[in-house]
Specification:
This protein is mainly alpha-helical and about 425 residues long. The protein has 20 helices and 4 strands. It has a two-stranded antiparallel ribbon with strand order 1-4. Strands 2-3 form a two-stranded antiparallel sheet.
Length: about 425
């Protein structure tokens, strides 16, 4: 049985094995397990039952990650997306006074739109239209993005009203412990220890206990609580209230966050072909579209691919087994929600910093001496972390690419879809500026 599975998941071609894949799946789960506590906290502000959303968060992440692993065979884990959950709760439900059931209906419709565009081949066209030089910029930008999250969680980078950001104090126990974890993980990585990141997370967590840095609030959960949100979505209400612009925002942001994460993870794992195509692309897109539909049915906001998947890839994960293991751990988390918060930020932050640094290697592929390529790549690279959004960074990169090629007479008819994307991004930014 295990031999057949190893053949199906192409262990020999990918140069991986069961031990590596399992450890990588655990690593990915540990770096994104925070969503089990954070997502319910955000969505409960919109009036959603906390226990039910906790269970829905775990179940949707489990279903989506396992589906991605089995169908697409990629080490990409999914869960309710950060940013989109805040938009769902604070902008749609609270500011616009839309009932959460109706907002879930809008999420469902965006997922159906995803499926339709995937079946029609539109999403595939979008991915193929993006210049491959921007792939490296997206991967590097996401590396900076998750490193910034890691620095913030470690307390090494803090907010400052005068300079926007400033350096934190290494006398802060969390910061000191995170720096220790970073040194340990890096040393193990240099020594080619396959489980370097996982060992670092576990060792730092153990040290955090006597330091009094492990604090967590037990979260309610369990399958029985799902009854309060499962199938409570109001699709008719979403249509009657004219929420098409909200559906579009859910769709647009999720689309490009997904594409950016997909490019970053596959590039980091070395899974992109020499002609810049991604094998089994249709299956990947089908999996994440289905995940959004499933998430809305269970009772959570848009489910999307997670950049933290790169932590598992850095730990050696190359096949769908990594995502399946992560999904199984999310499934177990339904009953073990009170213990998810035991791993402190000081333990996961150094993992994000290390992975972020490793993801910058690809920017050497960018032709930095050619302004036609360099400026769009630069805007993509820096605006992903600076705007805290993959979609924003990619959007500015695509617009700059289109404008520069038009201005210099380098326009090619076969690139028409890229210019359509640029126009859509520009329309989105204009719309965002008016709200």
């Amino acid at each position: 049985m295990l031999k057949r599975l190893a053949i199906y998941f192409e262990f020999a071609r990918l140069g991986t094995n069961w031990r590596t894949e399992i450890l990588a799946g655990i690593t990915t789960f540990l770096t994104m397990g925070y969503i089990v506590l954070v997502n319910p906290a955000i969505l409960s502000a919109a009036g959603m039952p906390l226990a039910a959303v906790t269970a829905a968060t775990c179940l949707s992440a489990a279903f989506a990650s396992i589906l991605m692993g089995v169908v697409a065979r990629y080490p990409i884990a999914l869960a309710p997306g950060m940013g989109l959950n805040a938009y769902f709760a604070y902008a749609v439900c609270i500011r616009m006074h839309v009932p959460w059931q109706t907002a879930l209906g809008a999420v469902f419709l965006s997922g159906v739109l995803f499926l339709a565009l995937t079946a029609a081949g539109i999403r595939q066209m979008i991915l193929r239209a993006i210049p491959h030089e921007l792939y490296a910029a997206v991967a590097g930008g996401i590396g900076l993005f998750i490193a910034l999250i890691g620095f913030r969680n470690a307390g090494l980078v803090i907010g400052d009203p005068q300079t926007l950001v400033n350096i934190g104090s290494i006398r802060n126990p969390t910061t000191a412990l995170a720096l220790f974890g970073l040194a340990l993980m890096t040393a193990l990585e240099i020594r080619k220890v396959r489980a370097a990141i996982l060992i670092g997370i576990l060792a730092t967590t153990i040290l955090a206990w006597p330091c009094g840095l492990i604090h967590w609030t037990p979260a309610a959960g369990g399958f029985h609580s799902l009854a309060d949100t499962a199938f409570k979505l109001d699709i008719r209400g979403a249509l009657n209230k004219g929420l098409l612009e909200i559906v579009f925002i859910f769709f647009f942001v999720d689309l490009f966050d997904n594409l950016g994460t997909l490019v970053a993870v596959t590039k980091r794992a070395g899974l992109i072909e020499a002609d810049h195509t991604i094998p089994r692309l249709n299956r990947i897109l089908f999996a994440d579209a289905t995940a959004t539909v499933f998430g809305s049915l269970t009772g959570t906001s848009t489910v999307t691919s997670y950049v933290e998947s790169t932590a598992g890839v850095a730990a050696g994960g190359r096949s769908g087994i990594t995502a399946i293991v992560t999904g199984l751990l999310f499934f177990l988390a339904i009953g073990a929600a009170p213990f998810i918060g035991m791993v402190p930020a000081a333990a996961t932050a150094p993992a994000l910093i290390l992975v972020g640094s490793l993801m910058l290697g690809g920017i050497s592929e960018i032709r930095w001496r050619e302004p036609l390529v360099a400026l769009p790549a630069f805007l993509t690279l820096v605006l992903i972390p600076f705007t805290y959004s993959i979609a924003n960074g990619l959007g500015f990169g695509v617009i700059a690419w289109a404008v520069l090629h038009l201005a210099t007479g380098r326009f090619r008819r076969q690139d028409w879809f890229l210019y359509l994307l640029a126009a859509l991004f520009l329309a989105r930014f204009i719309y965002m500026g008016a709200t």
